[in-house]
Amino acid sequence: QQGTAGAAVRMPKAAATRVGRSGVVRWGGVAGVVTAVFNATEASTAAGYTSSSSAAAAKSYSPHSAEVDAAIALCNKRIELVGVDLYKVTQEVTDAVTVMVKSGHMGGGSIEDVITASDGVWELFHAPHMKSMSMPFGVNFKPVRYVLSGGQLRSDVHFSGPAGASGWLCSAGVARASGDNVVEIVFDSFWVAENGGAPRDNPVAKDVAQAGDRIVNSVGRMFFLSSFSQFPVLFFDRDAGICVFQFTPLNSYIAAKLVGPVPADVSF
Known about the structure:
By secondary structure, the protein is α+β, with helices and mostly antiparallel strands. The protein has helices at 14-17, 21-42, 55-58, 66-82, 91-103, 111-116, 128-134, 211-223, and strands at 120-126, 140-149, 152-160, 166-177, 182-194, 230-237, 242-247, 252-260. The chain has an eight-stranded antiparallel β-barrel with strand order 1-2-3-4-5-6-7-8, surrounded by four helices.
């Protein structure tokens, strides 16, 4: 499927991504370590990717100022040039995200409306804390992708690191309203996949989990911090395909771009 950012969005197909026992067990050690590092940032990146397909909540209810329109155009132009890549953010993009946050635009609805309108595939293009935390370890996360559908949430994140280590870190759970303009994220399943074009489906949900899958799921659940699972949504515009929210412990603004609809074959 072709996303609005111009890059194909490839989602899991069980027949193409099945991993045997030896592959999963071999991955257990590496994936456990990377999952532990990633989960320090994972909970902080999922909450605000809200906007998209529900006609009732998706329309914009008030016009933007010229300054906000310019900020949106700058971000979208940058994404057209370099793709959805949080490691290629410029100061101009950071300034544009700040302009959007200051506008406080939320599409005219409540946080429940925003979640209802959240169905779609989102990828991060601005996450300063994630960039600064991963680079010292020589780890790169791209894409950082979230799929939302009816309040269900799935995260698929490709990582590459030292010594050629690479693959997918995946998790699934729910997104729900928690106070004024706050989204709570609860992940309850975690799994990994070896490097490839697309991640695989949740082996626990599919009841095909091997020993390595169960270890990874246990490690992920252990390192998921519920205390970091609530996030204020600061800007939301379905038409622009941009949402910004805040990781409050580090006062970090996280911005995501809508890149496509929910794939027909996605599972949570």
